[in-house]
Amino acid sequence: MSSQSFIAFVSPADSHNQLLIDRVHPQDWINPEPADCYDLVVIGAGTTGLVVAAGATGLGLGLKVALIEKQLMGGDCLNFGCVPSKALIRSSRVIGELQRANTLGIQVAPEAIAVDFAAVMERLRKVRAGMSVHDSAQRFQALGVDVFLGQACFCDRNTIQVGEATLKFRKAVIATGARATYPNIEGLEASGFLTNETVFSLSNCPRRLAVIGGGPIGCELAQAFQRLGSQVTLFQRRSQLLPKEDFEAAEVIQNQLRADGVQVCLSAEITRIERTASGKLITFRQEGRESVLEVDEILVGTGRSPNVQDLNLEAVGVDYDSVHGVKVNDYLQTTNPKIYAAGDVCSPWKFTHAADAAARIVIKNALFSPFGLGKSKVSDLIIPRVTFTDPEVAHVGLSETAARHQGIAIATITIPLDQVDRTVLDGETAGFIRIHHQPNSDKILGATIVAPHAGEMISEVTTAIANQLGMSALSSVIHPYPTQAEGIKKAADNYRRTLLTPMTKQLLKLLMIFSK
Ligand SMILES: Cc1cc2nc3c(=O)[nH]c(=O)nc-3n(C[C@H](O)[C@H](O)[C@H](O)COP(=O)(O)OP(=O)(O)OC[C@H]3O[C@@H](n4cnc5c(N)ncnc54)[C@H](O)[C@@H]3O)c2cc1C
Ligand SMILES: NC(=O)c1ccc[n+]([C@@H]2O[C@H](COP(=O)([O-])OP(=O)(O)OC[C@H]3O[C@@H](n4cnc5c(N)ncnc54)[C@H](O)[C@@H]3O)[C@@H](O)[C@H]2O)c1
């Protein structure tokens, strides 16, 4: 693809996108002369590839490392994922605040709220371009990484082809990520639709937007676009939004989306889409009834497909399938022990922080585990997740459903946010803090938090789980008053109260008597 078409890919061709391209796919980039043999060749310069390459060269051990990127360095997170979506969500949160300002005694007439959508998107592009310096080709070159721009493909067990260059490797890492998958709906392709790769290039807010898919992408962007001015209809095939989350957590989000004005269609099956003179006509079935809805744009967020095609993986004995991606063991080794894979191309946890953690495992296992000694395992990772709706939904560890499926007994403590002083003061009581622990033990097994900044709060529970700190330890930590995180302490205090048996009460009474 020419540099010109990359500009088109992250349109509009303004100074922000030009800066982005100058950093993550410079037009005048000349690939280096390949080294005789690389210690490590990394395919894909998204979060995974960048962390592996920077980590391996950053140690200053003189390792020869090559990084290959066919499109934009920074991958999904910088260009089409976390960064642009969270920049957009920031603007939409302001609208949310303004819309409920009257509950706080501040009168804001709805007609006084004016969204300058073009300015919102320009801010997104500016912020993204600014952050791109960290992922730039120039930065990685300066770190000592040989950066090759072009599509990589394995030739044989020791060589990778990129453009005219043939790179010899001792070890290789597949970090090619994933792309939007879209459902097989009659007329969808012909009618045209947006995905995460195109939606952040919009300059005009679609007046009527259909979002297909009620996962993290669908829920985050449905709420953001509704608040920024679209009339959004969210189609979810399942009976619950965010089906990987606790049912009550999803219910809070569903209620909030409806309060925002999103038409939430659950258990909906879209059967046909047609282009009309005035838009796109969606025919769908819900509860046995067929309905039609006309919209201006359709955004698809129905999951991801791993990028395993065109890599010639057969030639190097790397097993894969098109749904789960590259097959890896617990050490992130593929079926060819000299080739590793990490990130969205092989992981069920498709998050930037999971990609980062996996990349660190690859560096250790591929380069610093002689004879397989001291290797790290993916199964040891404790991976939290956050969906950045308003309120946010954060989770770590076991959920009730997972515990049931695995036959693990759990005890659960839930603190509704209307019992937390700070959320009461802030008028933000939709949500809860829920911690699962081992019955008759203070060992924490998992937690779900639904709160305005649940993403900031979940790390306390993650730290506790990762360091085998139990509910008693959380209860003994002093939390500043009034903060939302105090709800975590409240849950832990509730646990400690369950320890007050008639016997311990008797004991306390005795202590009281002798303390007089
Ligand atoms: C809309 C959206 C919002 C998201 N929000 C969040 C969030 O808030 N928090 C979070 O943790 N995660 C979020 N994610 C997920 C996160 O973006 C991904 O988990 C992360 O980017 C995965 O990194 P990766 O390096 O494995 O893959 P990618 O980022 O996909 O990078 C892979 C790279 O490999 C390149 N490549 C592919 N094939 C080849 C080839 N043959 N040769 C050379 N290069 C190749 C691609 O061009 C790409 O640049 C979001 C994702 C989306 C889509
Ligand atoms: N905040 C974050 O960390 C964040 C944000 C966005 C994306 N992501 C990552 O990206 C991944 C992909 O997100 P996603 O939301 O596309 O995928 P997803 O697989 O999590 O959710 C897709 C949803 O679409 C629904 N669906 C599928 N086909 C449908 C159809 N024909 N009609 C209606 N609904 C349909 C499914 O029931 C499912 O709930 C996530 O799993 C996550 O790992 C993370």
Brief summary of the model shown:
With 516 residues, the chain is of the alpha/beta class.
Give a verbal description of the structure.
With 516 residues, the chain is of the alpha/beta class. The protein folds into three domains: 174 residues, 3-Layer(bba) Sandwich (FAD/NAD(P)-binding domain); 115 residues, FAD/NAD(P)-binding domain (3-Layer(bba) Sandwich), CATH 3.50.50.60; 112 residues, 2-Layer Sandwich (Enolase-like, domain 1). Helices cover 35% and strands 23% of the residues. The chain contains 17 helices and 23 strands. The strands form six sheets. Strands 1, 2, 3, 4, 5, 6 and 18 form a seven-stranded mixed β-sheet that branches. It has a five-stranded antiparallel β-sheet with strand order 19-20-23-22-21, sandwiched between helices. Strands 10-9-8-14 form a four-stranded parallel β-sheet. A hairpin with a 4-residue loop joins strand 19 and strand 20. Helix 3 packs parallel to helix 11, helix 5 runs antiparallel to helix 6 and helix 5 packs across helix 9. It is globular and about 85 Å long.
